[in-house]
Structure to design on (412 residues):
DNA sequence: GCCAAATTCAAACGAGGGTTTGAAAAAAGG
DNA sequence: CCTTTTTTCAAACCCTCGTTTGAATTTGGC
């Protein structure tokens, strides 16, 4: 693991993860990556077989970081009452609003993919989207036990959407003209508001 | 208006609007635009002072198309009961799911801007975002008359978010593994579901 | 019909992108 | 230690991009 070549590989991964999260795939040049990682330009092709290969690795790593956290909490969430489970889910989604970069970087990378999915991403998505949406659908189904599959799916998307809009527009909401304060306490309040609205909305169908 | 030079200008605008909507700013080359418009490459610099200038014009046109439709309906929406107003708002937002390109093209252009706002867009946004969010906030305030400004703003974003997630992911939702049917009838159903959930959610605070 | 202005055109420019190359350096194995 | 393999390196290659150029053509007012 500490072989010299692995050190180079690791430096590239760290730099690439930061830059891809910050600027997205297109606006990140391999020259910028190697400058930040302080390695030779050809090293990316040597270790990752090109920019696409590097991005694939970064995406995989981001997927792991996200779903790992998600599934580890999934079990305890399922043990809660449906209301508290949904509230916890919302809070978990909204954690992307925090500036703690270790957590938000994977989220930001996926945000780029929301609008322009790269080919690399589509490939990964088909394998990994199931557990990602599965938890949401599971929670929803406890509010709408009689609903058909289509409605459950739509409701799950609906739930994810009302959280994601805040995460995706974080920077814009923080600035004028909205100027929303988004510290830890404010996010907690927001999570309560959103989960309250969502629970009441779904409750009408119970 | 039918001067020869205006014809060239118009052909460029049409082609650019289509391509920007389809691929976004970065992935649309002026060579692709002039090929589709069947004009000379230098014409873009002559008529629009470069790619940025052309994009600015396309954005302006898209803004006009969207807010014009929005504000024209805003008046009649405000005359409705709060529940019907919200339902109408949701239906209006979800019209982006339709494949009728005259309507969806401006929406798609703005979708690109959601994740990576261009400098051109930021400039326009500061002038025009107010009426865009104003209607949402107005409807919301009828459900939460006692709420503070911050809560109203958050609720407006929340409302827009739960509509936008469907529009933004339309193509992905239509394909596997979701494979959601999204014809006119299905969208109508979806609008009813979403507005029903939203109304019930906000109703809890009334 | 003429002339000045506006418009079109083909070609080239320069910057920036990802990738390739082939030799030099370092690491690993016997 | 010597050999073989792995890894690094600077340089160049080739492509696409937005823009510029300067001449040719068309347009519009007199």
């Amino acid at each position: 693991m500490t072989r010299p070549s692995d050190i180079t590989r690791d430096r590239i991964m760290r730099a690439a993860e930061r830059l891809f999260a910050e600027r997205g795939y297109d606006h990140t040049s391999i020259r910028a990556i190697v400058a930040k990682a302080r390695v030779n330009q050809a090293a990316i092709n040597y270790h990752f077989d090109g920019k696409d290969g590097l991005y694939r690795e970064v995406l995989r790593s981001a997927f792991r970081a996200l779903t790992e956290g998600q599934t580890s909490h999934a079990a305890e969430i399922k043990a809660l009452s449906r209301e508290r489970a949904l509230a916890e889910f919302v809070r978990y989604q909204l954690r992307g609003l925090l500036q703690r970069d270790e957590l938000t970087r994977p989220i930001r990378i996926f945000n780029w993919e929301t609008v322009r999915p790269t080919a690399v991403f589509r490939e990964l998505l088909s394998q990994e989207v199931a557990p990602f949406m599965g938890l949401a659908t599971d929670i929803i189904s406890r509010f709408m036990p009689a609903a058909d599959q289509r409605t459950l799916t739509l409701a799950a998307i609906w739930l994810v959407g009302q959280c994601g809009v805040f995460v995706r527009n974080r920077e814009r909401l923080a600035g004028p003209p909205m100027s929303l304060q988004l510290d830890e306490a404010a996010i907690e309040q927001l999570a309560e508001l959103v989960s309250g609205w969502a629970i009441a909305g779904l409750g009408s169908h119970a």
